[in-house]
Structure formats: structure tokens, C-alpha cells
Amino acid sequence: MKAGIVTPGQKDSARLIEMDMPVISSGQALVRLLELGIDGTDIEINRGEYGETPPDKDFIILGHEAVGQIENPGTTELGKGDFVVPMVRRPDDCVNCQRGQLDMCLVGNYRECGIKGAHGFLREYLAEDVAFLVPVPKELRNIAVLTEPTSIATKGIEQAMEFHNRSANPIDIAVVLGAGPLGLLTTALLKLHDYNIYTLDVVPRSSVKAQLVESVGANYVDGNVSSVVSLADKIGNLDLIMEATGNSTVAFQAMSVLGINGVLCLMGVSTGQKPLEVNASCLNMQMVLGNKMVFGTVSSNRGHFERSVESLIHIEERWPGWLSRLITRRLTLDKFRDALDPAPDNIKTVIELT
Ligand SMILES: [Zn+2]
């Protein structure tokens, strides 16, 4: 079978190789992978900035957002032809991993397929334990590749809502920072709750991203015209802010404008060093006197994947065709290297594996 691999630490090392077909063992199913979504982490790994090979290997198969179809269910209860999405993390022996909360790992010895210590899904076939395969209905076949990023947003939103429940006032205004795939999926998930949503990015109002924000009934804010800092003055108490840009300056600006009893969820990873001068006393005072809460979130567990599948069904019912508009570029496996060069106006690139 063909597989797209990289050598971690080496810039632009992405290449296609021929590999042996995987063989299933007890409790595993053979999955024929259909589609793979490329995200910023894949691009960073190909830049040599991140990534770790599986033990005793000098390369890693890239890719962690996938959908596939069961080719051989083996001894599992899955059926031939069932659609499945593979989870990303594999647990270590910490107390949280052992209880299924591998997204809340305490010690960091987990593996992540396509990222850290385990092969990913940019390949034609996968032999996988049934515990890490999440079934998806066949109606979602063409958009189920979005399940993994949706699971990240789902975890962030669920926890933010739980934290906001400390106070009796309901969430009225929610702000999403960033209109990339994660920001757009977050916008649609929040809109399922009918909050007043304001999604900010730095692309023009005529862009596809801005149109996608407005077509679920959220408000698009052009960050070149109106900054995060001025948002609160214009729209009122910011009950919930979901940060999906990974820009650390934006994250601190969000802290400074968070509303009374507000919750700020940080979902984006910042890289490099970026010193920033902040008025620490003022920020501390505002956080304390306003009962404000800031938290970070990473990865997702099986429950988040399962609830994401439900949410994707609801989004598709409410805004038919909206999810497929997020997939702005489709490439064959032979051309997967092109997906690792960010293209302007691109939202999500999907590699066709069949
Ligand atoms: Zn762990």
C-alpha cells in the first residue's frame, strides 16, 4: 500500500512510499482509509518543527484526521462496509488515560497517531483496535473527515459551558477568534445553542470564511477593521470567548476583554517566543473582581468523538451543505505534498485515499 511519510526534524521531508499491508490481530479491524484532512500540525511537522517517530522507526506516517470503511472486521462487532473515524491519542498508564480520559493525560507518555510516537492515517489501509474506531453513519461519509477537528471544538465548548454554569446568568454573547476550520466548526456548534455569535478573523467580508460564518447566522467581524479589544464596547458582556487562532497576543487581548463571569477557552497552540508587555495587576484585578475564568484544552476522547458525530448530523440538518463547503481543496494521495503548502483562501484540504 502507499503511505505519505515524513522524517521528523527534517524540513520538507514529506514523501510517498510503498509499505506492506497491515495485518490485523485479535480485537482489531482492517480499515480501508477513504479521506484524510490536513491541518496546521501536519504542516508544522513537515517544516521539521514537531513530530516524533514510532519506536525503532526513522519516519512517521503523517495525518490524524481521517474517515475509513471497514474492509475486514476480524473478531470485532463492526460490520464490513461500516464507516469509522479513528481516534488520535493512544493511552499511557496514567490514571486518566486508564479511565478513558487520554485527552487529560497526567504524565505525557501518550502517543498520537501521525504526530507523536505512532503512525498516522495518510495511507490506504489501517489495522486498528476497535476501542479507537468511532462508527459514523453513512450519511456523513463525505463530511466525516471533519469529525476529529469537531471533537476538539466539542471538548472546549462542553467544558466552557460547564464552567459558565457557575453563575445563573445564561450565555448570551459568544465570541470565536479565528475562522479557520476549528473556528468555523466552533461557530456552528455554538450556533446550535442559538447564542449571539461574533466570529473574528482578518480576511475581508467578501471571503468564503466570512460567508460561512454569516450563513449559520453568526456575525462576521473583520479584525482589520475592528479589533478584539474594541469588541466588548460594541456588543456587550462577552460571556464566552473561544480562542482558535493560536496567536498568543490575541489570547491575552481576549483575557482583557472577557466579560463578567466570562469564560475564555484557549484551543490554539502558539510556537516560538513572543514577549508581550501586559498590565499584570490590572489583568489580575479584572479576573478576580469579574469571576473570570481562562482555561486551555487539547485533544479529545472517545466521548467527544461520539458527540461530534451527533453534532455533525445536527449541523447538516440545520444548514445542509455547509460542512462540505469547509472542504475547499481535494487532492489525490500522489499530490499530498501540495497540501502542505498553505494556499490563500484555503480552509480545509482533504486527501482522497482511494
Ligand atoms: Zn496518560
Number of domains: 2
Shape: globular
CATH class of the largest domain: Alpha Beta
User: What is the succession of H and E elements?
Assistant: EEEHEEEEHEEEEHEHEHEHEHEHEHHEE
Structural class, please? alpha/beta
- What's the pLDDT, averaged over the residues? 96
Number of strand segments: 19
Fraction in helix: 25-40%
CATH topology of the largest domain: Quinone Oxidoreductase, Chain A, domain 1
Major sheet characteristics? 7 strands, mixed
Task: Bin the strand percentage.
Answer: 15-25%
* Named CATH architecture of the largest domain: Alpha-Beta Complex
Q: Report the uncertain regions.
A: none
What binds here, in terms of ligands, is: zinc ion
Distance from first to last alpha carbon:
11 Å
List the total number of helices: 10
The CATH superfamily of the largest domain is Medium-chain alcohol dehydrogenases, catalytic domain
Radius of gyration: 20 Å
Structure, described:
The protein is an alpha/beta fold and 354 residues long. The protein has two domains: 2-136 and 319-352, Quinone Oxidoreductase, Chain A, domain 1 (Alpha-Beta Complex); 150-296, Rossmann fold. Helix content is 27%, strand content 25%. It contains ten helices and 19 strands. It has helices spanning 40-46, 95-98, 147-164, 181-191, 208-215, 228-235, 248-257, 280-289, 302-318, 322-325; strands spanning 2-6, 15-18, 28-38, 60-61, 65-72, 83-86, 89-90, 111-113, 117-118, 125-129, 133-136, 173-177, 196-201, 219-222, 240-243, 263-266, 293-296, 327-332, 348-352. The strands form four sheets. Strands 3, 5, 6, 10, 11, 18 and 19 form a seven-stranded mixed β-sheet that branches. The protein has a six-stranded parallel β-sheet with strand order 14-13-12-15-16-17, sandwiched between helices. Strands 2-1-4 form a three-stranded antiparallel β-sheet, with no helix packed on it. β12 (173-177), α4 (181-191) and β13 form a beta-alpha-beta unit. α3 crosses α9 (302-318) and α6 packs parallel to α7. The longest helix has 18 residues, at 147-164. The mean pLDDT is 96. Zinc ion is lined by residues 91-92, 94, 96-97, 105-107, 110.
